[in-house]
Design goal:
Shape of chain B: elongated
Number of helices of chain B: 1
Oligomer: heterodimer
Largest sheet of chain A: none
Order of helices and strands of chain B: H
Structural class of chain B: mainly alpha
Number of domains of chain A: 3
Structural class of chain A: mainly alpha
Shape of chain A: flat
Distance between the termini of chain B: 34 Å
Chain lengths: ~525, ~70
C-alpha cells in the first residue's frame, strides 16, 4: 500500500474513532443517568448497548494500531460495571487528530482513493450512518416528551446528530458524484434535502423555545456538491463534546441551561418578536399545557382502576392461604375474583375512550382562538371568548382535583408510583398470610383429627381464616406506617386503628379456637 | 360469641378513609363535568358547531363518569 493511501485510511479511521467515541460517551452518560435514577431495568439495557459499542470502538482502535504501529489504548470491557459502581471517570482517550467535518464536509482525502476503495468506503459510511440515525430517533423521541430546558438540551443533541448525518451524506454524495453513480446521486440528493429540512425544523424549534436564532443549513447544499462547489459548513452547537475522560457534568448541562435562559432574557430585552413568532410561542405553550392536563386526567382514571384491580388481585392471592379449603372453594373464589378483574379491565378501557372523547371537545374550546374564528357578529366572538375563559377556569379546577386524586391513588405522594406500591402491598400481605398458615399447620392438623362434626370443624377453620386475613392486614398496616407512605394524619390515625383492631381480633380468635377445642375434647 | 368485624383489606379503616377521600373528590369532579357540559352547549350554540355540544350519555351515566 502506498504511503499516501495508508495515511488516508488512517485519517478516515481517526474520524470514525472520533464519532464512535462520541457515541460511547453518550451511552456512558445514559448509563450514569440510569444509575443515578435507580432505573435498574434501563441500566441493564444500556449496559448491553455499551458493551456492543465498546466492542465496535475497540475494533476500530485495533485497526488503527495495526496501521500506525502505535499502541493507542482501548476501552475496558469493565466500563459498564465501573459506571454502575459509581464511577464518572470513563477514561476514553482521544486518538489522532480527527479532521473537523464542519471545516470541510467532504473529506479531501477521498479524492485519492480508487473506485473499488471508494465503494468500500461508501458501504462503511452507510453502516456508520445507521448508528447515528438510530441514536437521533431515540433522542428525538425523548425530546418530544421532554419539557423546558431538558427539551432545549435534547434539541441541541438532535442538532448535533442531524448535522453529522448531513455532513456524511454530503460526503457520500460527493463520492457518488465522482463515481458518476447517477442512481445513488439522485437518491442521496433527495435524502440530503430531507435531512437538511429536518435540521432546519430543529433550528426553528430551538428558536421558539429559547428565542435565540441558530444558523440554518443551506438548502442548496446538494446542488452545490453536484456542481463541485465548496460545502457551506454548518456551525457546531454541542455541549456533549467533552474529552471523553469524564461524564458530561451537571455543570455542563447547567451551563447550557443558563445560556438558554440568558438567551431568553437577552432576547426579551433586545429583540422585539414578530407577531407570527409571538403567536407560535403562545400556541406551543398552550398546546403543551393542554396535553399535560389531558394526560393527567387520563392517568387519574387509570390509577383509579389500578387501585380497584389491586384490591381484587389481593383477594385472589388470599384464596391460596386458607384453612380447611376444598378445591371447589378455591376455584370458585379465584373464578369470581378473575371475573371481577376482567370486568374492571374492560371498564377501564371503555372509560379511557369516553374520557378522551370528552377531553377532545373540552380542549377544542381552549385551543380554538376566538380572534381568528369565523363569526357572524362581533358580539358572538365576545361571547365565545367569555365561554373560553370560563372553560379554562373549570379545566384548571379539574386539574387541581386530578392532582389530589392522583396523590390518593398513588399513595399520598404524587411522585410515588402507585403500581409499584400496589405490588409491594400484595407481596407484604401474601408473605404475612403464608407465614401464618405455616405457623399454624399443627393446629390445623389437630382440628382435622378432632372427633367433631364437619360444621364445628368448618367453624374452627373459619376463625383460623379470619386470622389469616387479620395477620396480613396487620402486616400491611405496619408496613405502610413504617414506610411513612402517608402524610395525612387522618390516614395515619386510621392505620393505627387498624393495627389495634387486628391485634385484638387475632387475640380473640385464638382464644375462641382454644375454647372450642377444649369444649369438643371435654365432650368426648 | 360476639359478632366479629372482618379484617379484609377493603374493610380496613385506612382503605375506607382512602376510598372516602377519593369518593369526595370524584364527586366534585363530576360536578365540574356537569358545569363544563352546560358550557359546551352554550359554546356549540355560539359557534354553530352542534357536534361539540352533544354527549352520548348524560353526565353521571357515562362509563367515564365516576360512580361510587
Amino acid at each position: 500500500m502506498s504511503k499516501v493511501k495508508q495515511q488516508t485510511r488512517i485519517d478516515l479511521l481517526v474520524e470514525s474513532i472520533a464519532v464512535e467515541k462520541q457515541l460511547l460517551i453518550e451511552i456512558c452518560d445514559d448509563l450514569a443517568a440510569c444509575r443515578d435514577n435507580g432505573d435498574k431495568k434501563g441500566a441493564k439495557a444500556v449496559s448491553k448497548d455499551l458493551q456492543a459499542q465498546i466492542k465496535k470502538y475497540n475494533g476500530l482502535v485495533g485497526n488503527y494500531n495495526k496501521l500506525t504501529g502505535e499502541k493507542a489504548p482501548t476501552v475496558s470491557y469493565n466500563l459498564p460495571e465501573e459506571i454502575l459502581a459509581g464511577s464518572n471517570n470513563y477514561g476514553i482517550e482521544s486518538i489522532g487528530q480527527p479532521v473537523s467535518a464542519a471545516v470541510n464536509a467532504y473529506n479531501a482525502n477521498i479524492s485519492i482513493l480508487d473506485e473499488r476503495e471508494l465503494k468500500k468506503y461508501l458501504n462503511r459510511s452507510d453502516r456508520a450512518l445507521q448508528n447515528v440515525k438510530t441514536r437521533l430517533a431515540t433522542t428525538t423521541k425523548q425530546k418530544d416528551e421532554a419539557k423546558g430546558y431538558a427539551k432545549v438540551l435534547l434539541i441541541i443533541n438532535c442538532l448535533t446528530y442531524q448535522r453529522y448525518i448531513i455532513e456524511r451524506l454530503a460526503e457520500n454524495l460527493h463520492v457518488c458524484n465522482k463515481l458518476a453513480d447517477k442512481k445513488r446521486v439522485k437518491a442521496l440528493k433527495k435524502n440530503l434535502a430531507g435531512e437538511i429540512q429536518g435540521y432546519n425544523k430543529l433550528v426553528d424549534e430551538y428558536e421558539v423555545l429559547t428565542r435565540s436564532r441558530l444558523t440554518r443549513a443551506s438548502e442548496s447544499i446538494p446542488e452545490d456538491i453536484i456542481a463541485g462547489k465548496p460545502f457551506a459548513a454548518i456551525p457546531a452547537i454541542s455541549y456533549t463534546a467533552n474529552d471523553g475522560t469524564s461524564r458530561n457534568s451537571d455543570a455542563d448541562v447547567a451551563a447550557v441551561a443558563a445560556a438558554a435562559a440568558a438567551a431568553v432574557e437577552g432576547a426579551k430585552a433586545k429583540k422585539k418578536l414578530s407577531k407570527k413568532q409571538k403567536k407560535a410561542i403562545k400556541k406551543t405553550a398552550l398546546e403543551e399545557k393542554v396535553a399535560e392536563q389531558a394526560n393527567k386526567d387520563l392517568t387519574v382514571i387509570t390509577k383509579g382502576y389500578d387501585f380497584k384491580i389491586s384490591l381484587l388481585e389481593s383477594q385472589k392471592d388470599m384464596s391460596y392461604y386458607r384453612f380447611g379449603k376444598n378445591v371447589f372453594d378455591m376455584k370458585a373464589l379465584k373464578k369470581a375474583a378473575n371475573k371481577r378483574i376482567k370486568e374492571a379491565q374492560k371498564a377501564h378501557k371503555i372509560a379511557l375512550k369516553y374520557e378522551e372523547k370528552d377531553n377532545e371537545r373540552y380542549y377544542a374550546v381552549i385551543t380554538n382562538d376566538p380572534v381568528t374564528m369565523k363569526a357572524k357578529k362581533r358580539a358572538d366572538r365576545v361571547k365565545i371568548a367569555s365561554i373560553r375563559n370560563e372553560m379554562m377556569t373549570l379545566l384548571n379546577k379539574r386539574d387541581e382535583l386530578n392532582s389530589k386524586l392522583l396523590s390518593i391513588y398513588n399513595g399520598s405522594e404524587v411522585t410515588l408510583d402507585g403500581v409499584s406500591i400496589n405490588q409491594k402491598w400484595r407481596q407484604t400481605k401474601s408473605d404475612a398470610a403464608e407465614k401464618y398458615v405455616n405457623q399454624n399447620q399443627k393446629l390445623a392438623k389437630k382440628i382435622s383429627r378432632l372427633p367433631a362434626s364437619s360444621g364445628e370443624k368448618q367453624r374452627l377453620y373459619g376463625i383460623l381464616n379470619s386470622n389469616v386475613e387479620a395477620s396480613s392486614t396487620l402486616a400491611l398496616s405496619k408496613y405502610r406506617l413504617k414506610t411513612k407512605e402517608y402524610k395525612s394524619s387522618q390516614e395515619k390515625r386510621a392505620l393505627k386503628k387498624d393495627i389495634k383492631f387486628t391485634k385484638k381480633l387475632m387475640a380473640r380468635n385464638s382464644k375462641d379456637i382454644k375454647w372450642i377445642i377444649a369444649k369438643i375434647q371435654k365432650r368426648t | 360469641m360476639a359478632k366479629k368485624k372482618s379484617a379484609s383489606l377493603e374493610q380496613t379503616e385506612a382503605i375506607k378513609t382512602r376510598a372516602g377521600m377519593a369518593e369526595k373528590l370524584e364527586k366534585e369532579r363530576l360536578e365540574l363535568k356537569k358545569e363544563m357540559e352546560k358550557l359546551m352547549k352554550k359554546y356549540a350554540k355560539a359557534t354553530g358547531n352542534r357536534k361539540l355540544g352533544k354527549r352520548q350519555h348524560k353526565v353521571g351515566k357515562a362509563p367515564n363518569d365516576f360512580q361510587a
